[in-house]
Design brief:
single chain, mainly alpha
Length: 404
């Protein structure tokens, strides 16, 4: 609906038009919230299909056949609901959003051909994973485009937090797929290992951004169920160092997949709570707009006074989503920053060297050595790698015979 004013417009006319436009935008946001829920469910199912397809391909069709078929059915169900949600797109703002929708649908139209290649085992697991990744990237890019016209700072902040979280969850899904691929093959190439480290680090950046934008209950929900468990951390360390074939590769891959799936399912619960928070924020803002009365001169003066100057906090909230979109683009290029990734890998090697010293000289188990280093770092208020580096630097002392 177009905003209309009189032939000789006044401040009051434009204030009324602004309120009407804001009400229309908030009503659209409620529909967009439902679309975002469809996107989140579709992405979650597609992430599952990606992981199941990886294990199926790596095992040459021996594992996860039934799981993969179930994932395909669930993706197709959610895709049908997604198409229904965008069948009448009048409530969607901006041409850029329509471009994002076109790109996502293009890759979904190629999904049957990809599935046929996977079924015939005519595609390498890594290449299949990359095609799923591209489809998911275009699907998730729809979310920030839905908010280009959002004026309410609270709604903008809620949407920014949601998009950061969805990016982090997708990176966790990529971590699951990469780890399953490496463990099933029995080795991690340098490229695969660097990609794994990249996904681990990048998702943490996204989750840190999410935590900075939400209230305490949502942060607590994430910290209670979204952080990786001890065994996941142990398998991460194995993957990020050169481990030897021991015949346990398939079992280790399945254990990895199960652990990461449990975590990603828990992240989905947080994601659902975030989508609900967006809806609640939009409903509250809409309620305030609907309660507003016809403006009088005093209202106009107050409104002008409140909007005439630069408000840093309001400006920041309004521009959170462009910043988050820029962050997502930066994350896409992080895989190419080998120097940073190599530094992270070297830190893990130093930690493993210090852990080996404790195992060899103190008789600790691997878990005890890890917990000891972690406790020392916490007590000294230092990073674990700094404590490990100090320990390794005096490694020669450990080799001296004990004085009688």
């Amino acid at each position: 609906m177009k905003a209309t004013v009189t032939v000789n417009p006044t401040a009051r006319d434009f204030l009324i038009a602004a309120r009407n436009r804001g009400r229309e935008q908030l009503q659209d946001i409620l529909q967009i919230g439902e679309l975002t829920g469809c996107i989140a469910r579709l992405a979650h199912m597609l992430q599952r299909e990606r992981g199941a397809s990886n294990i199926w391909l790596c095992s040459r069709g021996r594992l996860f056949a039934a799981e993969r078929e179930l994932c395909i059915k669930e993706v197709d169900t959610e895709l049908a609901l997604f198409r229904r949600a965008i069948a009448e797109p009048d409530y969607l703002p901006g041409s850029a959003l329509f471009v994002s929708l076109a790109c996502a649908l293009h890759y979904f139209e190629q999904l049957p051909a990809l599935r046929t290649q996977i079924t015939a085992q005519q595609i390498q697991p890594f290449n299949a994973m990359e095609q799923f990744n591209i489809t998911l990237r275009h699907l998730l890019s729809i979310v920030p485009e839905t908010s280009n016209v959002v004026d309410d700072s609270g709604v903008a902040r809620a949407l920014a937090a949601l998009f950061s979280f969805m990016q982090g969850k997708e990176l966790a899904g990529q971590e699951r797929a990469i780890g399953a691929l490496g463990f099933m093959q029995g080795e991690f190439s340098d490229t695969l290992r660097q990609q794994l480290v990249d996904r681990i680090d990048s998702q943490q950046h996204c989750f840190d951004a999410f935590c900075s934008m939400v209230d305490l209950p949502l942060r607590q929900q994430f910290l209670a169920c979204g952080e990786p468990c001890r065994e996941t951390e142990r398998l991460r360390r194995i993957a990020c160092t050169r481990f030897q074939h021991d015949g346990d590769e398939p079992q280790r891959a399945l254990r990895w997949f199960a652990l990461l799936t449990t975590r990603i399912d828990a992240l989905k619960n947080v994601e659902d709570a975030l989508i609900n928070a967006v809806m609640v924020q939009a409903q509250q803002a809409l309620g305030q707009v609907l309660q507003q009365t016809e403006p009088v001169e005093s209202d106009i003066a107050s409104w002008v006074a409140g909007h005439g100057g630069y408000d840093g906090e309001r400006y920041f909230d309004r521009h959170l989503l462009p910043l988050v979109r820029q962050q997502a683009q930066q994350l896409e290029t992080m895989a190419q920053q080998l120097a940073s990734l190599q530094a992270t890998l070297e830190e893990r090697k130093v930690i493993d060297q210090a852990k080996a010293l404790l195992i060899r000289h103190q008789g600790y188990s691997e878990e005890q050595a890890w917990q000891t280093l972690r406790k020392m770092a916490m007590n000294q208020n230092k990073r674990m790698v700094d404590v490990a580096s100090a320990m390794v630097s005096v490694a020669d002392i450990w080799r001296l015979p004990t004085k009688e």
